[in-house]
Design goal:
Ferritin; Rubrerythrin, domain 2; 3 domains; 3-stranded antiparallel beta sheet; binds fe (ii) ion
Length: 181
């Protein structure tokens, strides 16, 4: 990919409830396509097809531009303070309502893999909620987040500011595998 290009997506426009619903559905679909293609790229790499992997990554990027444009028209991109509040709200919904309900259904249906996947997500969303909360408080005092690295478990998404633990407390992955941002 070439160097970063300053993204100027289409401006927010509030015209038509059905159009908003359609764009929200398209945002979900494009976001899913982008994620799927990134996962497919990793498979292609593992199977020894690096150029197919490259194609998947390129199209994933294209789909992410579509998702971002739809989000922009829906008015879903604000200032960093707005965005932190929106991000905190999304994580809070997932922790308080969405994943507990999904976990109950997965338990009822005896789907253990789904319970594991949901549990990994729910625990990481708690990390994210806390980090967004403290970051927002700092921003209200006009302070950027410190330069300390953010580290993420590649298996469960457990997220920490600073050093990785010796072993992920949620899934047991060695801290040396954490991805640094
Ligand atoms: Fe697309
Ligand atoms: Fe999250
Ligand atoms: Fe983990």
């Amino acid at each position: 990919m070439a160097g970063a290009y300053k993204n100027t997506p289409p401006a927010a426009e509030d015209k038509g409830a059905m159009t908003a619903e359609n764009l929200a559905a398209a945002l979900a679909g494009e976001s899913q396509a982008s994620q799927k293609y990134l996962a497919f790229a990793d498979v292609a790499d593992a199977e020894g097809f690096p150029n197919v992997a490259r194609l998947f990554r390129a199209v994933a990027y294209a789909e992410s531009t579509h998702a971002r444009n739809h989000l922009s028209v829906l008015g879903g991109i604000g200032t960093t303070a707005d965005n932190l509040k929106a991000a905190w709200g999304g994580e809070t919904f997932e922790i308080a309502e969405m994943y507990p309900a999904y976990d109950a259904v997965a338990k009822l249906q005896g789907n253990e893999s789904a319970q594991t996947s949901i549990s990994y997500a729910l625990k990481a969303e708690v990390d994210h909620q806390g980090i967004y909360d403290s970051t927002l408080k700092g921003l209200e005092g006009k302070k950027d987040l410190g330069a300390t690295a953010v580290r993420v478990c590649p298996i469960c998404g457990h997220t920490v500011i600073g050093d990785a633990p010796d072993e992920c407390p949620q899934c047991g992955t060695a801290g040396s595998h954490f991805v640094e941002f």
